[in-house]
Amino acid sequence: MTRKELLLQRSAWMNEPNSPVVISSRVRLARNLEDFPFPHLISSEGAAQVEQTVSQVLSTGIEPLEYISLTELNNIEHQVLIEKHLISPSLGGSTGARGVALAPDHRYSVMVNEEDHLRIQVLLPGNQLQETYRLATELDDRLEAKLDFAYREGHGYLTACPTNVGTGLRASVMVHLPGLVITKQVQQVLGAVTRLGLAVRGLYGEGSQAFGHMFQVSNQITLGKSEEDILSHLDAVTRQIVEHELQARELLRKQMPMLLEDKVWRARGTLQNARLLSSEDSMHLLSHDRLGTDMGLLPKIKDCFATLIIDTRPGCLQYFLDRELDPSQRDEERARLIRERTAL
To answer: Residue 284: how many CB atoms within 10 A of its CB?
Structure first.
């Protein structure tokens, strides 16, 4: 598989989820090598040595991962990796020796020299926190057999950020909450989630906006908590969020049926006929379209929600078309692609 084929591959998490609300589940493990300073303190030579050490293990000893040095990629390729959630915006925007190892279906990605020396990530569609964790720990065990991770009895895994010390585990779910947004309950529900010790962020994590009515919910603290406690707490809260969203959708169906039908049919009509669509507008319309199909008000289209959302992002759109586009050209091509993908 060429690099282009690897990056164009549909990521596993973009397949149809097993839940109408939970789009994806992610588990990320932060790990650092014993004999090197953390990335924010390391020299450029030390960072290059970390990358060489880790990439050699990832390239030759851990199947089926393929290592890519980010210094070899152009800006659009960086953007594709960020848009597909395979690397963080901070890694994509940094400089120096750094990279990512990917599985062919992108369910595994291992970032090198981000905030920590390694960020081991597994990302799956729907509500699959336990399976995501199982796969992440299996990969972690295989890497730890070949690399000396910084670990202390009584503290656990040492990480650059104190909130990650201990298990180094950050678990998250991406949820689609149009019902709560339309009924103006979303702030109340998500405010309660933060009071339960969880973080709520936008589509691309800290500092990003909740485009397409999608939110990331994750644990904030790992020190003093077991992996099982973190996962069970997030799973319990996720079930409550799902229940609130489904109740909000039923409220719309019973008390505001014409408003609901107008929003979803208007979205479908615009998607199937628009000649220009901005990234923000398309995500908003696709969100309402997904709400309509989930509630049985609209016929299903061939591509699932997450695939359409990501494929029409600026980087992925340009990479698929194999040419750079100015904003107006992107809006035109995005509309054309969506018209093709939403045709029945």
So the answer is: 18
Quote the CA–CA distance of 129 and 132 in Å, as a whole number: 5
pTM, two decimal places? 0.93
pLDDT of residue 241: 97
Query: Do 309 and 289 form a contact (C-beta atoms < 8 A)?
Result: no
3-class DSSP state of 52? helix
- Name the pairing type of β-strands 151-152 and 156-157: antiparallel
Alpha-carbon distance of 343 to 71, in angstroms, equals: 39
Phi and psi torsions of 101, nearest 5°:
-110, 135
Taken in order of first residue, the domains within the chain and their CATH numbers are: 3-248 (3.30.590.10), 257-342 (no CATH)
Report how far residue 344's alpha carbon sits from residue 342's, in angstroms, rounded to the nearest whole number: 6
pLDDT, residue 13, reads 96
Amino acid (one-letter) located at 58? L
Please compute, for residue 53, the number of CA atoms within 13 A of its CA located in the half-sphere on the CB side: 20
Tell me how crowded residue 152 is: count the other CB atoms within 10 A of its CB. 9
| 3-class DSSP assignment, residue 56 | helix
**CA-based radius of gyration for the chain:** 21
Q: Which residues of the chain have pLDDT under 50?
A: none
Angle CA 307–29–234, to nearest 5: 70
Contact 328, 261 (CB under 8 A): no
Token digits of residue 320: 């698929």
For strand 118-125 and strand 151-152, is the pairing parallel, antiparallel, or unpaired? Answer: unpaired
Among residues 94, 153, 147, the alpha carbon closest in space to that of 120 is found at 147
Cis peptide preceding 39, ω within 30 of 0: no
